[in-house]
Amino acid sequence: MGVSGSGKSTIADHLAKRLGWRYEDGDQFHPPGNVAKMSAGHPLTDGDRWPWLKAIADEIDRLSASGERAVIACSALKRAYRDILVHGRDDIRIVFLDGTQDLIAARLAARKRHFMPLGLLTSQFATLERPGADERPIIVSIDAPVEAIVDEIVSQLNLVPQ
Ligand SMILES: Nc1ncnc2c1ncn2[C@@H]1O[C@H](COP(=O)(O)OP(=O)(O)OP(=O)(O)O)[C@@H](O)[C@H]1O
Ligand SMILES: O=C(O)[C@H](O)[C@@H](O)[C@H](O)[C@H](O)CO
């Protein structure tokens, strides 16, 4: 989880490769209208996000039923959004990619070929509810090289070898 530009796609992809797990990007589950709205510079509302989060929750259940392990990139900015993804499923961990607005703005300004405009970053931070301790989040600073961030997440996941 994390705001646009915090590195969700990048870290999820590298983390999944490291673990040999599947990587899925929450952006693939947006209805076309949501992508059009963000591309036009408008933030999504809760109403826009519910069907999208439900689709990701369904995918988590599908993966779980097939016994497949996965890393899923999803902004999941509010606790209510995370509840949809996590509630009732005990085999999920949340990884929060934590960084300052200045650092993320600089990364977004340099990013090529992406529908999400830099102008939406302020609304992403306004919407963000940092995870509480009861959510057992793994919180990592994004002010580090990608592989160092992946190292930190793997270490905090404390996985039991299979
Ligand atoms: N640790 C890092 N160090 C330097 N650059 C990074 C790091 N992580 C990500 N980036 C770069 O920052 C930009 C944003 O990363 P990325 O697209 O993965 O973010 P995101 O959270 O998936 O964004 P969105 O939610 O808008 O899809 C990309 O250009 C990426 O290459
Ligand atoms: O909740 C949201 O506002 C959206 O999920 C956005 O965060 C985008 O999907 C993503 O960040 C852009 O790729």
Structure description:
The chain has helices at residues 8-19, 32-39, 46-65, 79-86, 101-110, 121-127, 146-157, and strands at 22-25, 70-73, 95-98, 138-141. The chain is mainly α. The chain has a single domain (8-157), classed as 3-Layer(aba) Sandwich (Rossmann fold). Strands 1-2 form a two-stranded parallel sheet. Helix 1 (8-19) crosses helix 7 (146-157) and helix 3 (46-65) packs parallel to helix 4 (79-86). The longest helix is centred in the middle third of the chain and has 20 residues, at 46-65. The protein is globular. D-gluconic acid (GCO) binds next to loops.
Radius of gyration: 15 Å
**Which residues sit in consecutive blocks of at least 5 with pLDDT less than 50?**
none
Distance between the first and last residues' Cα = 26 Å
CATH topology-level fold name: Rossmann fold
Family: Belongs to the gluconokinase GntK/GntV family.
EC number: 2.7.1.12
Keywords: ATP-binding, Gluconate utilization, Kinase, Nucleotide-binding, Transferase
InterPro entries: P-loop_NTPase, Shikimate/glucono_kinase, Therm_gnt_kin
Outline the fold blueprint.
Layout: H1 8-19, E1 22-25, H2 32-39, H3 46-65, E2 70-73, H4 79-86, E3 95-98, H5 101-110, H6 121-127, E4 138-141, H7 146-157
Parallel strand pairs: 1-2, 3-4
The protein binds adenosine-5'-triphosphate and D-gluconic acid (GCO).
GO biological process, one term: D-gluconate metabolic process
EC number: 2.7.1.12
Family: Belongs to the gluconokinase GntK/GntV family.
